[in-house]
Write a structure and sequence with these properties.
This protein has 1 helix and 9 strands, in the order αβββββββββ. The chain has about 170 residues and is mostly beta strands. The chain has one domain: AOC barrel-like. Strand 6 and strand 7 form a beta hairpin.
Length: about 170
Amino acid sequence: MAFYYAIALLGMLAVFSSGGNALDDNMLKTTVYIQQLPYQNQRGVAEGTAVISWYIKDGPGASANTIGHAEGLVILTDIARSSWLITTDLVFDGGSLAGSSLQVMGQHESSGQWSIMGGTGQFTMARGVIEYKTIQEDSSSRTFEVCIYAYYTPMNGWKAGLALGDTGSKP
């Protein structure tokens, strides 16, 4: 019986004493639009591989502002389904997200999900998911609606270059 009490106590300690968990993090929930222009903002580098710099827009229409770029690679992984692997940084140059980026990877089809595996700027230590779908497609362009759901830990008060355990205070 004492064994069960010990397990219960350890479980409660783990739940109530953990610091730096997801409950302490900030959440980003926003929608942006990625515009792919195959003859302008991507370049084939090998059979089935392209370097991309797709536009990130703040809206779906022609008058939307460019607020960044999806910079990375797409690699053909399934010819029959026209499925691609995407590994990219969503780099934000304008708007409220300027100066930050999200590192993203996943299968790229007409709709689906990508994993958020990291971030910079205000999105340090980001993790989450992106749900995307094609909302416009013709012979010269394709537009994706990109819904971002991410948790991140801002670097408020962190000092660059400190050794592990160093608080940065003067002796």
